[in-house]
Amino acid sequence: MNTDRKKIIDIIPPAGAARVLVTSGFVGSIGTGMFLTGSALYYTRVIHLSPLQVGLGLSLAGLIGMFTSVLLGRLADRTGPRVILVGLHIFRIFAYIGMALVANFWQFLIAVVLVTSADRSGPPANQALVGRIFEKTERLRTMAYLRAFRNVGLGLGALLAGLAVESDASWAYRLLVFGNAISFIPMAFLVARLKRFERPVPAAQDPVDEPSKPAAARARPLREIPFLSVSLANGFLMLHDSILFVALPLWIVGYTEAPPFMVAVVLIINTMFTAFGQVWWTRMAESLSDATRALTTCGTVLALASAAIGVAHYGNALTASVLIVVGVLLLTAGENLHAAAAWQISYDLSPAGQQTQYLAVFNLGTNVHDTAGPMVITALGVSAGPPGWLGLAAIFLLASTAERYSVGWTSRTRAAAALSGRLHVSEATR
């Protein structure tokens, strides 16, 4: 079999649990893409909310969703992530139907808290399910397939939402929300089918048997400061997401000579390269040490991307367009490598028996980014001009260094606690 053939096959997930998971994620991302594309217009043009009311509701829902994800993570460690994920999908069917029927601010507030709490709880449960079914490199590759197909699904959903936006009719916007609700029906069915692939529930490791994880096995993740610092630093690295969807469109149209159609070009480049390349990037993060080293590369590449995009401000139409394309290629490489490294780090630092709640706490950094990231990116990547992009470059370098240090800090703290536990056990048996 030649190399080209292998690359083509590598795009498609293998038969079995991986393909079921990817199919579920792909279907769900179409609904999510429809909803996210039209949600702001639905809130303001159909429910007639002010931008302030929308911002207040989304911020409050985001804060509540953070705590909900951790609580459901603890429950998932007891019942299994598959059971929780099926329940979340069924819950979201009704929650989004409710969102499609709201008529005022208070109804919106209740609905957005419910859907956001469920949405924030889904990713850690889904990642934990992947960890429950697959081991080592296979779980990393499966996460990569999920992300690649999710990007394609989001793009398809956005195209469908464009029809509703073009019509600008209330019924069309509500149909987008109903469509998202319907997408969770096959997701619940597909995830429920994965029961036969699950491995037994892992027990928390004994301090004597595994020195790297005992402190975490006895403690709660919200009390483990080194692990929280990993999550926070990872949240800063997630700013690449806001650059793509928030800062770049505003920057291209308002601050460069590049033609407006470059907004669509950069999204196409990002989507295509992620769809075809995300699995490949996992090869650079197949162990905790590899993933930690990859953070340095990731931070450097993202910093170079920010610099290239910022310098585009000074070029003519052709030069600006070339610099923006170069910046987006670097940005895509950096975000794909970051995703692979973050999966490996979060898996390896999450103790057996408590994996879902640790993954939920790890995702708190991402949740903070989702809440504050657009504001930070708009202030630095748009309002501050080219110097702001250099500031973003510095943030990426500092965040990657901080996360790398925090991973080592977490490992050293747990190893020290393990040694202390062994000494206590030894003294007690004398």
Automatic annotation (TrEMBL):
It comes from the Bacteria. Residues 17-411 form the Major facilitator superfamily (MFS) profile domain. SUPFAM superfamilies: MFS general substrate transporter. The keyword Membrane applies. It is found in: Cell membrane. Keywords: Cell membrane, Membrane, Transmembrane, Transmembrane helix, Transport. It holds the Pfam family MFS_1. InterPro entries: MFS, MFS_dom, MFS_trans_sf, MFS_Transporters. The chain crosses the membrane at residues 20-42, 54-73, 93-115, 148-165, 171-192, 227-252, 258-282, 294-312, 318-337. PANTHER family: MULTIDRUG RESISTANCE PROTEIN MDTH, RESISTANCE PROTEIN MDTM, PUTATIVE-RELATED-RELATED. This is MFS transporter. It comes from Streptosporangium amethystogenes subsp. fukuiense.
